Amino acid sequence: MPLRKTITTLFVAALMFSQSGCASIVSGGAKTLPIMSTPDGAELEVKNLRSGETILKAKTPFTALLERSSGFFQSAKYEVRINKEGYLPHQTVIEAGINGWYFGNIIFGGLVGLLIVDPATGAMWRINEESVMAKLYPDTTQGRADFQKDEEIRIAAEKAAEAVLKAGPR
């Protein structure tokens, strides 16, 4: 009798595991995203760009809970706006990309995980940003000049990183 009970338990466990998606198991649900600004106390607005809805209004610092999906097989995309009187506004886009664990369904989750569970739960998507940190520049001639200089440095760094990635390993 104990062998039969063990086999039944293993069968039920295998059945339950096969009915869940790989990314759902590994990655969980919504993304916790701390949003900060220097200086603190700025107005924060998060807009879902897929639906057009403003989903959050708060003051910095704030920790937002963002869904990784905007529907079945559709990644989430958000616009984060940070404003404070006397400072230049800050805006950034947060977009979910494919979660590498989603492809684990080929081995572990099967078609149910690949075509139903992970797309339905949003686990097939991943938000890579760990936080949003906005440096707000004073809305003055010097503040605008500092912002422009920092933007040029940021763009140059991005281009250099792209060139290194394009060149590949040596």
Tell me the fraction of residues in β-strands, as a range. Answer: 25-35%
From the N-terminal CA to the C-terminal CA, the straight-line distance is 62 Å
Stretches with pLDDT under 50, minimum 5 residues? 11-23
Question: How are strands sequenced across the largest beta sheet?
Answer: 3-2-7-8
Helix content: 25-40%
Instruction: Please tell me the total number of domains.
Output: 2
Number of strands: 11
Instruction: Write down the Rg.
Output: 22 Å
3D shape: elongated
Helix/strand order:
HHEEEEEEEEEHEEH
- What would the average pLDDT be, to the nearest integer? 82
Describe the biggest sheet? 4 strands, antiparallel
Please state the structural category: alpha+beta
How many DSSP helices?
4
How would you portray this structure in words?
The chain folds into two domains: 2-136, no CATH class; 138-170. Helices cover 36% and strands 30% of the residues. The model is unreliable at 11-23 (pLDDT under 50). It is elongated. It has helices spanning 2-18, 22-27, 110-121, 141-167; strands at 31-38, 43-48, 54-59, 62-66, 69-71, 74-75, 77-83, 90-95, 97-98, 125-126, 132-135. The chain is built from four helices and eleven strands, in the order ααβββββββββαββα. Strand 7 (77-83) and strand 8 form a beta hairpin. With 170 residues, it is of the alpha+beta class.
